[in-house]
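Notebook entry, cofactor series.
This is the third protein in the set we're modelling with a bound small molecule. For this one the ligand is S-adenosylmethionine. I'm keeping the input format identical across the series so the outputs can be compared line by line later. Sequence and SMILES below, as received.
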Amino acid sequence: METQFTNRDKKWIQKRVRKTYSKAAKNPGGLFRYPTGHEGLTLLQYDPELLQALPAEVVASYCGVGNPFTLGPINESDSVLDVGCGAGVDTLYSAMMTGPSGKVAGIDLTPAMLNKAKKNLLMTDLKNVILEEGSVENLPFSNENFNVVTSNGALNLVPDKARALGEIHRVLKPGGRLMVADEILIGELPKEKDKIIKSWAQ
Ligand SMILES: C[S@@+](CC[C@H](N)C(=O)[O-])C[C@H]1O[C@@H](n2cnc3c(N)ncnc32)[C@H](O)[C@@H]1O
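Returned structure with ligand:
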């Protein structure tokens, strides 16, 4: 059953997300319980040839939790949306696969992450990428726009998942695909949750 959040809860969650990911935008190394950057991408079996085409600084900014590209192809000329794009590594990775005849959009809630993604984009010669600030709960795109929506480590941070999935469905073309890598909690929250939540509230 999905937890019901008040508007106040939702605002608090978004504030926490922006604070945490503003730090990660500077350098994700050591901030997460899982490997980030080149180590994470290698363990998750991203294509080494495509990774080689990205500058080391771009690769270092990856903080995804899994590899959504194991779930299906990104084809030449596809239009792709990366939800919760962070510093944009998956966005740029998709843009290399669609080629110049495709288009790829990235959207993220955290301005610092989006600025990092814009800097990362400028370090490549990709011309088929747009980056927007915003929430997946209110996507700034028209209906039936994308062949594929990808998301990596973002949907677990979204309070209104039903709304987020509705928005993703709205912007997908008929027959379009959603490819998600994410974390889920199975069972009860750990006992130390109250301590963790208190530390967040400071
Ligand atoms: C774990 S990071 C992953 C970033 C990126 N996908 C990657 O693989 O490197 C999660 C990202 O989701 C973003 N995020 C969280 N809630 C969001 C929301 N409601 N809408 C859009 N992005 C969101 C955060 O700002 C953060 O950049």
